[in-house]
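Appendix B, Record 12. Input sequence as logged:
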Amino acid sequence: MDGANHSRVSEFVFLGITNSWEIQLLLFVFSSMLYVASMMGNSLIMLTVTSDPYLHSPMYFLLANLSFIDLGACSVASPKMIYDLFRKHKVISFSGCITQIFFIHLIGSMEMVLLIAMAFDRYVAICKPLHYLTIMSPRMCIFFVVAAWTIGLIHSIAQLAFVVELPFCGPNVLDSFYCDLPRLIKLACTETYRLEFMVTANSGFISLGSFFILIVSYVFILVTVQKRSSGGSSKAFSTLSTHVMVVILFFGPCIFVYTWPYPTSHLDKFLALFDAVLTPFLNSVIYTIRNKDMRVSMRKVCRKFIIYRRIS
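Logged structural output:
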């Protein structure tokens, strides 16, 4: 591609979420509180799993890694969105936009792989309990984490490989509060039908397929749980319902954004806001409120921290 076709756009302008001052103020308070709560909640989960030997198991190892990813998920778009709420001219540089897209797809792919790994962990724990420690060995857990990073990097780089070479020479306004591939591609000064189809196939269909596989897997596990005695399966059922809730929260907005053929600006913004701000917070809340072992361990960690602060 010659120099004449290279991007002449140095920055993109966001239209933001709304022009209403009252709604902006509400979003500022709401988003700021959720962002801080998400950072604190997911950090506390990581600290608890790391410091409590009782939680040194495959399920909590994967949960700690999921919390680490959620720290990134709530930090990719939320801080700039909060910062831009009261700015009249909301802009992001071309390189900043590409970086934001890279991390959005990296984190999204990693979370997808980890959710599949957590489903596999529950399948082994419930359907093959005698072989659990053999199958879910430390080596297998490390393999899942490495696979998540590898697949995330490959997916994200593949998405951007074509986008960075697109010529952006005309409009530079994005009707959003963050950079995303579907809207960015439409601004290119060339025919993008095939590229839009590639993005849909790469992100949308993979998300839809992974969601279908996960739901079928959990249905199969739930059927297995129901066939067992109610006394021994109540804890397993509670754990599974927690995982299903997280899967729906993660895949719902993602599937709609990338596969729905009739995009709606306001609905897309709501789902994007939900995914960027609320989902990482809800993940930490769901895994702590519905998990007795995690609640007990968190209280121990908080108690030790308070005692330490008083001594120091």
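The longest strand covers residues 11-14.
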